[in-house]
Structure formats: structure tokens, C-alpha cells
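Troubleshooting entry. Yesterday's outputs looked truncated, so today I'm pasting the complete records for two proteins to confirm everything comes through intact. If either block looks cut off, that's the bug. Protein one:
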Amino acid sequence: MFESEVVKIIECPRDAMQGIKTFIPTEEKVKYLQSLLNCGFHTLDFGSFVSPRAIPQMADTADVLQGLDLSESKTKLLAIVANVRGARDASQFDAINYLGYPFSISENFQMRNTHKTIAQSIEILDAILELGHKTKQGSGYLYFHGFWKSLWRPLERGNCWGMD
């Protein structure tokens, strides 16, 4: 089987958790993520190194990571970063295999998500990738967060390729 024929399942509890307003205790996050590590997913998008003001639920990502027992799991860990500072913080942890950056083809969505333009985001992404090449997290992922919203919302207006 060729590498391109392999399906890699990435589970993303981070996305669901960050939307919950009531803070989930660190121990509960560790327990839940530990159960997911035992499922055999290729990658677990487990947390993010972003401003706690922006996403309070992820303020304890480093503590959560330190609470995980990775000794019996082959699952790789992915953390979201929205800037170089977050990438530096995440790259301090050898257990993190991938850094993810939320990128959108929609200027509006990019501004709402990272407070940066697409052009600024490309510069930030270059710096994150350079940092990643110096660390174990050399393989990065781009999250095209705004991509589907940009296609589907205009589709409802009758223009399937328009941008918001």
C-alpha cells in the first residue's frame, strides 16, 4: 500500500472543549484525552497554545500534556498555535509531534480567528515552520478553518465560489 492510500484519522476534542464556557477541570481533560489515546487514532488534536484571554478553556494545555501517560500509545499529538510565541511554547514539549496553524482563505475569517490578515498569517506561518524545522515538530499542519464556511455560506446565496 502506498503512503497516499493510508487513511489517517485525526480526532479533535480540542475544538469541542474550547467551545465549552464552563472550565473543564484539568484532571477531567487528562482522563478524557487518556481514553482517546487508547483508541488508536493516528493523531489527537488535544490542545492549543494560545492566549488564555482568547480561549480560556485551553489555558491549562501544558498541564494537561504533562498529565498524559503516552507510554502505551502510538497516537501522535497535535497542538494548535496562532502565533510564533505559541509555537515556541508548544515546541518545548517533545511529546507534541505536530503544530497546527488556523489558516483561512477568507480574509474576514482569518481576522476573526487570529486577528491577522492572510498576508500577515503567511509571514507568521513561515516563522512557525522555520521554528518547527529546528525542533521535532518539523511537520506542520495548516487548518483551513474558513474554507468550508467560505464555500457553503455563499452556496446558500446561490454563488458556490464567492468569498465572504
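Protein two, checking that the full record survives here as well:
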Amino acid sequence: MTEPTRTDATAADTTATDAANAGVIVTERAARRIGEILQSDPGAMLRVSVEGGGCSGFQYRFDVDRAKTDDDVTIARDGVTVLIDSVSLQFLAGSQIDFVDDLIGASFKINNPQAKTSCGCGTSFSL
């Protein structure tokens, strides 16, 4: 498996090194699926964020975005870009963003070592 490359757009942005230091990894399967989803929208990126809510206190959110903000960390892998804002990065430190396709369905899955509990569907968690 190839190690993902990380890039940042400007010196004013949160650097990709922050993502590397936080240990956020996008797997090959996730990058491939992101590419499939975004192939019809050149320049689009996947935004991963954490917000309050869900059955466990926090929930992951996945959105398609065309703009990068000043506090975004950029993770690039296999031709796709994932954006994470600096606040969400704190909750995602050490996480692996994966894509799973099993008997109960196909979805992105975040393996978050900081999560003390999570719901059955895997989209919400508590710290």
C-alpha cells in the first residue's frame, strides 16, 4: 500500500504537516471511492468534519466541497483531496478514513482511536 501524500495550498493555510502530525490517514480503498464519487465534478474535494449530535455526542460529516478555507488541512492521495478543518482535526487525530463494503452496506468508516464509544452505525462517537 502506498503512503498518502499530503499537500498544502499556501503558507497561510494550516499545513499538511499538521495532518501528518495528527496521523490522519486516507486508505487506498477510501481514495478510490472518493475518486469514483467526484469523477464527474473536476476540482471537487471531500470534506470530513466532526459536529455535535448523533446518538453518542459527536458525529462525522462527509460533504463535497469546491473551496478550501484558510484553516483547512489538505490530505491528497491517489489524485483525490480530503479537507479537514482545524477544529475537526483535533477530534480526528490518529484516525484512519476507510471505505468498507460488507453485508450491511457500503460506507466510509472512520477508525478513531480517540473514540471511547460509538453507535452501531459508526457515524457517531463520544470522547
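Both blocks look complete. Sanity check on protein two: The two ends are 30 Å apart (CA to CA).
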